[in-house]
Amino acid sequence: MSGESPTDADALSRLERRVEDLVAAYRRLQEDNATWRSRHQALSAEYVRLNERTRTARSRVEEMIGRVAALTREGR
Length: 76
Known about the structure:
The chain is mostly helical. The chain is 92% helix and 0% strand.
């Protein structure tokens, strides 16, 4: 501590701790971001899959409605 007063040393120590805290927070945020990106990709893939299943189901229901309507017309 050549030429540093106790106050300067304390301020420097506080600054070092703050920088270490910020680096740790930055690393945590990077990890969280990677986790959220992965989750987002998984949910996006699930959305695409469910959307396709919904379209298929809708098509099948519309087909069945058409057949019921045809049967109803034939029965008249």
